[in-house]
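Example record for the data management plan.
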Amino acid sequence: MKKKLFFSSILIVLFNALICQTLYVPSGVNGIGTSANSNVGVGVSSPNAKLDVNGSFMISGSNHCTFGHANGHGVINFGNNGLGQLNFRSLLTAGNINSFNQLMVLTYDGKLGIGTTNPGNHKLAVNGSIRAKSVFVETGWSDFVFEPNYKLMSLSEVEAFIKTHKHLPDIPSEAEIVKYGVSLGEIQSKLLQKIEELTLYIIKLDIENKELNTKIENLYRASKF
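Corresponding structural encoding:
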C-alpha cells in the first residue's frame, strides 16, 4: 500500500512538472487542485469557462474537435481524418454537427476555400462574387509589341484568322473561357497587347494616309501646268 502511494506521489509530481502549470478541477473531483466552480482550469485557479487555459495547448490525433454553441447554428471544426483541416460550418439543425452547410475551409496545406470544400490548386478559391476596393495582380506585360523585331500581323492576316477561328489571335475563345475560366492578369496583358497592336496599325495607316495626301497634292500641282 505504501509503495502504491509512493509511486502515485511521484507520478503526480512528474505530471505537474511536465505541464508546468496547476490543473484545477471542480470541487469533489480528485485532482491536483480544485476550482470553486464547475469549470476546469489549467494554470487558472478560478476558471471562467468550462475549460480555461492560461498558456498554450495542443490537440493532436485523427479525431475531430468541434467548437460551437449547443443550441446554435455556427460551428468551427478542426481536423479532417487527421489532415488538420479547419472547417467553418452552418448547422442545418441546431445542435446536430453532422448536418451542416460548409461555409469556408482552410486546408492543411494552407489553401482557403469560401463556398467550396475543394480549393484545388489555388491558394484562394471562392464560389461566389467578390467585392473589393482594389485588386493587385502581378503578371507579365505586353510592351514587347513595340520591340523592333515584333512581327505584327497584316490586317489581311487578322481578317483571315477571324474568319477561320471566330476570335482574335492570341485571345482565348469563348469555349476555352467557359471550360477553363480566365486568368485576370493574363487576359489584361493580352488585351493590352491588342490595344498596342491597334496603335501600331493606326500609326501605319496615318503614315500611309499622309503619303497618299502628298501624292495627291503633287498630282494636283502637276495637273495645273
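Summary line stored alongside the record: The helical segments are 2-19, 155-165, 174-180, 184-223.
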